[in-house]
Every structure is written in C-alpha cells, then in structure tokens.
Amino acid sequence: MIRPVLVALFFLLPTWLHADANLVRLYNALQLDAYVQISQSEGLADVDVLSQDMLGRPPSARLNDQMSAVYDFDRMKNAVMAGLDSLSPDQIAQSLLFFESEIGTRIVDLELSARKAISDDAIEAAARESWRATKVDTTSDELLEHIADITTSTDLVNSNVSGALNSNLRFYQGMVSRDGLDLPEDQILTLVWAQEPDIRNDTTEWLGAYMLMAYAPLDLADVEIYAELWRTETGGALNAAIFAGFNKMYNEISYATGQVIALNMAGQDL
Predict the structure, then answer these.
(1) Which tens digits make up the pLDDT trace of 230-266?
(2) How many Å apart are CA 171 and CA 257, to the nearest integer?
(3) How would you classify residue 155: left for phi > 0, otherwise alpha for psi between -120 and 50, otherwise beta?
(4) Domain, as residue range, for 196
(5) How far is Cα 105 from Cα 150, in angstroms, rounded to an integer?
(6) What global pTM score does this model have?
C-alpha cells in the first residue's frame, strides 16, 4: 500500500495533458521526453548501488517496485513541463523558430545523441579524456571558445552544481522525514556543502566532455549562432525554465528516494 505522504507525488494530474499546444510543440522540439527517459533509466540502473551503499544488501523485489514508482515517467514529465510553463507565449514562439529550424533540429539531435552515448561508462571515460587532451593541445581552438561562451551564458556549471546539492539535500530530508536519519538541518546542510568541491570539479569536466562530443560535428558558424541564442532574453528564459523543470523533477525523486530508503531500513512498507 502507498502511504498518503507519497500520494501527492505519484498521482499528480499530468500538466502536459492540458498544456498549450505551442508549449507541447516546444517540449517535443527539444526532445525532452527522451531526456526524461534517460533520467529514468539511469536512476533505475543505480538502484543496485543505492541499495548496497545505503542498506548493505542487493535490492529486494519490494525495493525495486518502490523505486519504479518513484521514477514514474508521467510524474517526471509533469515536473519538466511545469518548468516550461513559466515561458510567455512570445518566448515560446521565438524558441520554436530556432528549435524547429534545420539548425536547431540538428543541434538537438546531436545533443541527445551525445547524452545517450555518455551514459555508457566507457564512452564517458573516453569523452573526458578527449576533453582534457583538447584543452591542453588546442587552448585557442574556436570550438572551445564557443563552448565556454555557451557554458557562461547559461551558467551551466553553477546551475548543475546547485541542482545536485539541492537534490542531495532533499534526499537527506526525505530520510529524516521517515526516521532513517537523525540529523538536524544545520548538520545536513554542512554534510551537503562538503560535497560541493567534488561535485563542481566533476560537473565541469563532464559538461566539457559532453559538449565537445555534441558540437564537434557542427560547423563553427552554427555553434556560434547557438551560443548567440543563449545570450538573448528568450534564451535566458528558456534556460531557466528547463532547469526549473528538471530541478523540480530531481528534487521530487530525491525526497521520495530518501523516504523509500528510510522505510526499507526499518523494514516498513510504503
């Protein structure tokens, strides 16, 4: 049985069923369904490690079922769509002009292909090595300048680090809510902030490796056009909306995961 505390997470009415048609077009143009699916697949693939680290044993059938409920696709999609809902009709229309264009479609395809590929540990390791080598050997490379421009314009490193820290905080808060962790909030915050340097270093390298993989096949002129997009007011609003949606998704997942782990520590059912 699912306890009432989780009902609000698992049975939200899907916002995307009632979203504006152009907002749905933008969601589809960005291929965000695929990113939600990647997040779902990666999260469920990590359940074995999570169970070993937190419970000291392989996941039970019950834990696997509980985590499948946590990574419910419609709920995850609902959170991402809620983030996009902050965009104005004009911002949606201007975003569609780019992302439904030939250049925009190609860039989205390349980004998605790179994101799928880097989910493989071996490919990720090779991509990181390529990034390190490229930074050393071609420090004046124009592609790296455009990547740095995109990274700065979208505040990618800080936004990802902040998202990761908040997600970790929500995990611990979820554990506390179900008596799986006995720590006051200030100690939890100290514990989370201690992870910041490692998360920042890892995030910076991962983003560089991913972006190099994604944008290397493009003409430099197209990468420059893409960088210019993120410097516009519409680009800034779209970037903020995407982060808001995925942060909401990961925060909900992390809190529910903390609850699940705490209840399994105590041998309780959801």
Answers:
(1) 999 999 999 999 999 999 999 999 999 999 999 999 7
(2) 6
(3) left
(4) 4-265
(5) 18
(6) 0.90
